[in-house]
Specification:
three-stranded antiparallel β-sheet; 389 residues; alpha+beta
């Protein structure tokens, strides 16, 4: 950006640009070797990336600052001024995209449970920019007309559970339950094998687990709503023979803080485990016949595996969303793969990555390998136990 003397902005100097209220700006995130910010127009569903310098300017377009004032702040921050041509380029880009107040908004595009804005493939609970093709074998259908209003009602009904005074004891009970499941895993494996020989009990357990997945999706929406998020859709998605519920958080990547985004991503797995608590109490303390007792034990094991599997840090699972936030990165898996390929070839370009990017991508790769190794070890141990009893 070339330097320019004061007054070079000419007629634009007193212009006070203002972003439309529907425009969201993300925190700084890694994207490959670069640091970027995402900008999303919630009216159209479109989003794009900008660099830190562009974000510095755009974030100050609040209708109160003039271009001259923004330019002075920019000059103090970066040691150079913007000329009129550069200002015009930025304003033209924002105006063409319909992001400035007074500019025609771009036509809205349908949102669906598919891909995640700026963060790889979606898991059904996060930003979506395109509806999958509908058909007999795959598709989706909305269940409510106003998903955000529905989620708001749910939040008013159960949001009190998010208060630390209630949530902490519940999480302590979940931890205690998982310790019991781990200590009695061998016994529960036998019960699970028995469950698959009883069609009636297996159908009941499968129905409960499906209901748990529905609560999982709604939990994402309720926690996002707790932090000011919006829910774009609640519906059913099918990839026959599988039919699951989805809840699309329209502004997940734009929630107020990284910790809020992590809690939103974590909410689904926590809900799965909370759902198991009453069944765990019945299994441990209620006088049940052997078949029911064993079926409940199998439900505990299957439900725990279902919840913990969602925390594996691989796309499109919730664990990947959490890992992305911990690393402060967008498209983490793709960026990690690109960096590792460069590093493996000893390409000098790998050295161009900033230190925090190299650390983040290496840490993510290691966590993914360890997670896969843990899954493999658990599967081998389970198979060995079942074959030797």
């Amino acid at each position: 950006m070339s330097a320019a003397p004061p007054g070079a902005v000419e007629g634009l100097a007193e212009y006070r640009p203002e972003l439309r209220s529907e425009v969201l700006l993300s925190d700084a995130m890694l994207h490959g070797a670069a640091t970027v910010h995402l900008i999303k127009d919630t009216a159209s569903g479109g989003s794009f990336r900008v660099g830190p310098k562009e974000h510095f300017l755009i974030a100050r377009m609040d209708g109160r600052r003039s271009l001259a004032e923004i330019g002075e702040e920019y000059a103090r921050e970066y040691g150079r001024r913007l000329d009129a041509a550069r200002w015009q380029q930025i304003l033209r880009m924002l105006g063409t995209r319909g992001l400035l107040a007074g500019a025609p908004a771009r036509p809205a595009t349908a949102t669906g449970p598919g891909g995640g804005t700026g963060d790889g493939a979606g898991a059904g609970a996060f930003d979506g920019d395109g509806r999958p093709a509908r058909g007999v074998l795959r598709g989706s259908v909305r269940l409510v007309a106003d998903a955000d209003a529905t989620t708001d009602r749910l939040h008013r009904a159960v949001g009190f559970l998010l208060a630390p005074g209630l949530l902490v004891p519940l999480l302590a009970l979940v931890l205690a339950m998982e310790v019991v499941v781990a200590l009695r895993a061998g016994e529960l494996l036998i019960y699970t094998r028995e469950l698959f020989t009883n069609p009636v009990l297996l159908t009941g357990a499968a129905t409960l687990l499906w209901f748990s997945t529905a609560l999982h999706e709604l939990a994402h929406g309720v926690v996002a709503r707790h932090y000011g998020g919006t829910v774009a859709e609640i519906g059913l998605r099918w990839r026959l023979p599988v039919v699951i519920m989805y809840c699309t958080v329209g502004n997940y990547l734009y929630l107020g803080s990284r910790w809020q985004r992590i809690q939103t991503a974590l909410a689904g797995a926590v809900m799965n485990l909370l759902f198991l608590l009453p069944f765990c109490a019945l299994w441990l303390f209620a006088p049940l016949d052997a078949a029911t007792h064993h079926a409940l034990g199998a439900l505990l094991l299957l439900g725990s595996v279902q919840a913990l599997a969602m925390l594996v840090p691989l796309p499109p699972l919730d664990g990947y969303r959490i890992a992305s936030q911990l690393c402060g990165a967008t498209e983490l898996a793709a960026s990690t793969g690109a960096y590792l390929r460069l590093a493996a070839r000893r390409d000098p370009a790998a050295g161009d990555y900033p230190r925090h990017a190299r650390t983040a991508y290496r840490a993510y790769a290691l966590s993914a390998v360890l997670a896969l190794a843990g899954i493999l070890a658990a599967a081998v141990a389970a198979a060995h136990h079942l074959l030797t009893v």
